[in-house]
Amino acid sequence: LHTQNELDIIEADEISHCVNDVLIHMTDGNNVERRVVTVMGGEIYELHTERLIRETTEKVTAEVTAEFQEQIAEDKKQIAESKKQIDEDKKQIAEDKERIAALEARIAELEKNNKPA
């Protein structure tokens, strides 16, 4: 059917894998397996392309999650460094304000002493 363009490559692949799975179950099954399948309510059949999509999605999701976690860790590190720098800057500003206040007091004292009486 594929060579006659009645099925595309994906559909032909699906049928091929379905037939393969059926053959495996027919030749490999035993009474215990049949009883377990009956008790469990049967198997949920997953098409080959659905399995590929699921596996690819799981892989990509895991990779993206790992990258996202790495980015979060890097962002937290940068935030901690920024907070540390801000604290250092605040300390420097406080020291500068004290120095300015001391200089202003010194200027006021000098102006007071240099005024003619």
Describe the structure using short key phrases.
117 residues, mainly alpha, 82% helix, 3 helices, rod-shaped
Can you walk me through this structure?
This protein is mainly alpha-helical. It is 82% helix and 0% strand. The chain has helices at residues 9-28, 31-40, 48-113. It is rod-shaped.
Low-pLDDT parts are none
Q: What series of H and E elements makes up the topology?
A: HHH
Number of helices: 3
β-strand percent reads: under 5%
If you average the pLDDT, what whole number results?
81
Q: How many beta-strand runs?
A: 0
Radius of gyration: 38 Å
For the sheet with most strands, the description reads:
none
Shape: rod-shaped
Q: Estimate percent helicity.
A: over 70%
Structural class by sheet pairing and helices: mainly alpha
Distance between the termini: 117 Å
Topology of helices and strands:
Blueprint (H helix, E strand, L loop, with lengths): L8 H20 L2 H10 L7 H66 L4
Short structural summary:
With 117 residues, this protein is mainly α.
